[in-house]
């Protein structure tokens, strides 16, 4: 199991960790999630998983436009000088098509950046100005039925995320 950017097994700095599972590990993603947490990935709140080269994503995303996101969450952050408060607002239901249009809008599209550190700086700088929107715990799947590597976790629960830029 290959892991990048790990300072210690418990990840005390709460860095976002990068994982590169083998195809066998990717097939049993629930077990791999447990492994990621054992390395401290959960301390950062998210992790980057790079799928194995032989994994193939969905052939086409045209047939998920009408998939409903029943309760999108807008994450509001207020504060300054290192003291911030975060609260969530449940928004009205929207389809994946509406979510995609919002994601591609000027408000949420990815800005130009020099490297990932620059992109992360822009994220934190804009967080109090533009609230991210999450579409979490959506029933269904964004993977093809023929995708041999999805698990119950991936099939039944996925999250869409609009970052503030």
TrEMBL record:
UniProt cross-references to PROSITE patterns, sorted A to Z: JMJN
InterPro entries listed in its UniProt record: JmjN (IPR003349)
Annotated Gene3D superfamilies: Cupin
Keywords, comma-separated and alphabetical: Chromatin regulator
JmjN domain: residues covered: 16-58
GO biological process, one term: chromatin organization
Transferase found in the keyword field: no
Highest taxon of the lineage: Eukaryota
Acyltransferase keyword on record: no
Protein name: JmjN domain-containing protein
Naturally occurring in which organism (per UniProt): Sus scrofa (Pig)
Lineage, top ranks: Eukaryota, Metazoa, Chordata, Craniata, Vertebrata
């Amino acid at each position: 199991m290959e892991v990048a950017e790990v300072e210690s097994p418990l990840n005390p700095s709460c860095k976002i960790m990068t994982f590169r599972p083998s195809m066998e590990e990717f097939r049993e993603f629930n077990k791999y999630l447990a492994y990621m947490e054992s390395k401290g990935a959960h301390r950062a709140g998210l992790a980057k998983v790079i799928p194995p080269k032989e994994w193939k994503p969905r052939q086409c995303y045209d047939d998920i436009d009408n998939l409903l996101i029943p309760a999108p969450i807008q994450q509001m952050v207020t504060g300054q000088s290192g003291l911030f408060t975060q609260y969530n607002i449940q928004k009205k239901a929207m389809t994946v098509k509406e979510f995609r249009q919002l994601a591609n809008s000027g408000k949420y599209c990815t800005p130009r950046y020099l490297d990932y550190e620059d992109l992360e700086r822009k994220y934190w700088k804009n967080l109090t100005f533009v609230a991210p929107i999450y579409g979490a715990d959506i029933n269904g799947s964004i993977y093809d039925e023929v995708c041999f590597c999805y698990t119950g976790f991936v099939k039944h629960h996925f999250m869409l995320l609009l970052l503030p830029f």
